[in-house]
Amino acid sequence: MTKYGSFPGARPRRLRTTPAMRRMVAEHRLHPADLILPAFVREGITSPVPISAMPGVVQHTHDTLRKAAVEAVEAGVAGIMLFGVPEDAKKDAAGTAGTDPDGILQRAIRGVKAEVGDDLVVMSDLCLDEYTDHGHCGVLDADGRVDNEATLERYAEMAQAQADAGVHVVGPSGMMDGQVGVIRDALDQTGHEDVSILAYTAKYSSAFYGPFREAVGSSLKGDRKTYQQDPANLRESLRELALDLEEGADMVMVKPALPYLDVLAKIADAVDVPVAAYQISGEYAMIEAAAEKGWIDRDKAILEALTGIKRAGAHMILTYWATEVARGL
Ligand code: PBG
């Protein structure tokens, strides 16, 4: 060995020497337009209600929701995903409030559209769990099981109600078989062929949805394991992906994000449609809680998690920090 041979032949550290150098060679960077803000709007309240398990996130009134939408536009955020929280008295077995033209979500869509028009991509959660008194994402059969076909009929009606209200994108999140195809048909048959479908393609049955259940005042007892995917499965996601694309999904999503980056990477490699990832309520809560205890650096942890999701292949990221992060970029 020569004298120089005793030194490393390659020194990756050279490209890490200064912030400017690191910035130059960064392979991925976040942009405000990568981000989509999920937002909750609740019926029958006059001021925003904080969600205790999601510090910094609230259930909006119509007015504060419109304000949040304007702030998102100003920060350069790409879109907003709306979730409606009806009054408890309006919940029933069929989730009727979900298809009422004057239901909370339909009114929120109209309000946000009136405020921001096409400056923000307005999206809506297309699922029954926020509106059913039993809290499941579909309607139940006589044995108390979620009835796939009966639920699809309700989803078709929801799609029309949301599209009539002016939404740009619907996000079916209930994991019923055939939901994307039925929703596509319903939209096309009602003159809404321009409304897109962001399919929750790989949606896992996750403990990390915990804080969301508070956010929407869910009455669910039990779990969603007969329709959401088992965390143990990866290949199953590719099957769901093929079905969603065949049925007409314009964009596909993986959810949750951080514990499922392998699924995200596989799906992003496999498709030519935009891929979204949803950094869900529990992912938000974990970082906020650890930061509150002084155990991690909040802002760095947020950016690291989001960068990791982007690196894994997400073109769009739903995150409750969307506006804050977009402002800081
Ligand atoms: C179902 C839905 C859920 C979330 C988004 N859409 C809850 C669930 O499937 O139990 C979770 C989002 C989050 O946890 O941030 N309508």
From TrEMBL:
Superkingdom of the source species: Bacteria
PANTHER family: DELTA-AMINOLEVULINIC ACID DEHYDRATASE
Catalytic activity: 2 5-aminolevulinate = porphobilinogen + 2 H2O + H(+)
A GO molecular function held by the record: porphobilinogen synthase activity
Function recorded in the entry: Catalyzes an early step in the biosynthesis of tetrapyrroles. Binds two molecules of 5-aminolevulinate per subunit, each at a distinct site, and catalyzes their condensation to form porphobilinogen.
Organism in which the protein naturally occurs: Streptomyces halobius
Protein name as annotated: Delta-aminolevulinic acid dehydratase
Assembly and oligomerization: Homooctamer.
SMART domains xrefs: ALAD (SM01004)
